[in-house]
Amino acid sequence: MHARAPSRPVGTVTRGTTSPNRLRRMDRWIAAVHGAALRGAPSPPVAVDLGYGAAPWTARELLTRLRTVRADTRVYGVEIEPERVAAARACAREGLCFVRGGFEIPLPDGAGRPLLIRAANVLRQYGESEVAAAWGRLCARLAPGGLLVEGTCDEIGRRHVWVALGPEGPRTVTFAARLGSLGAPSDLAERLPKALIHRNVPGEPVYAFLRDFDRAWAELAPYGALSARQRWVRAVRRLSADWPVTDRESRWRQGEVTVRWSAVAPGGGFGSS
After folding, report:
1. Disulfide check for 192: which of 187, 197, 211, 212 has CB 3.0–4.6 Å away?
2. In the chain, where the domains are located
3. Average pLDDT over residues 141-168
C-alpha cells in the first residue's frame, strides 16, 4: 500500500548522490543505541529513510541492519522527486516501501508514527536558519520514544557527523570516522551538519571541542604506533575529562565519540540550552 502523494511535498530536491554502504556508520550507531526502543515497541516499529536519493540502497540497507535488532521492523523510503520514487518501487519488498514526500513524512494510513527518522545529507543544501523548522517538523512526526538522526557524511561514508534528536529536541552529536584515513579529528569539520558547519570558528563551542580533540590526538601520537584505534580511544578518554562524552569505550573503538548537544550547540535557536 502506498501513501497518497501530497500535492506539495515540503522541502526541495537534493542532488540525490549516494552509494552502497555510505551510511553504515550511522546505521550501526542507530542499531546500538536505539535498539532497546525498537525491541520494546508494542507493534512493528516503523523507520523512515528521508531523502534517500537517486537509488534505494540506503533504505534497503537500513531495513537489513534494523532487522538484526527487531525482525519485523518496517522501513519507508521517503523522497520528494517523483521519478526517484517510481524507480525505487521496483525494489520494494516485504517491510520496505517507497513514498513521495518531504518533511511532512506522508506515511500510508495505518502505518503509525515512525520510531526512527534518518535524514542523511538532506539539510546540507538548506540555510542554517531553516534547520530549526525542519528539525521541529520532523520531531513532531515521531512516535513516543522516537529518534531523529540528522547529519552529513562524505561520498563513501568514511567521515560522518550527526545529531540525534527526540520529540523534545536535540540530545547529542556523534563524530565518526574510518580511523585509518584520519589525519586529525578536525578533519571531520567539513562534515558537520548544517546547524554547526558555519559555527566552526573561534568563540563557538564546536570549534573549541575540535581544537581540544586535536590537542589530545597530537599529545597521544605515540599510541598511533599501536594502531589508530588505540590513539583515538585514548584521545577520547582524555577529552572526556573536560567535555560531556556520553558513550563508552565500546563505541569509541568503532571510531565514534558522542557528546551532549548542549556542549557544542551555537547560542540561541532550537534546543541550544
Report:
1. 197
2. 24-262
3. 96
What is the dihedral sign for C-alpha 248, 253, 257, 258?
negative
pTM of the model: 0.92
If we measure between CA atoms, which residue out of 258, 177, 160, 179 comes closest to residue 226? 179
- What are the backbone dihedrals phi and psi of residue 252, each rounded to the nearest 5 degrees, phi first? -60, -35
Helix or strand holding residue 98 (H, E): strand 96-100
Q: Which residue has the cell 567535555?
A: 243
Q: Which of 176-204 are b and which e, b meaning 16 or more Cβ less than 10 Å from the residue's Cβ?
A: bbebeebeebbbbbebbbbbbbebbeeeb
- Rounded to an integer, the average pLDDT of 63-69 is 97
List phi, psi (to 5°) of 208.
-65, -40
Tell me how crowded residue 110 is: count the other CB atoms within 10 A of its CB: 6
pLDDT at 116: 98
Strand partners for 79: 100
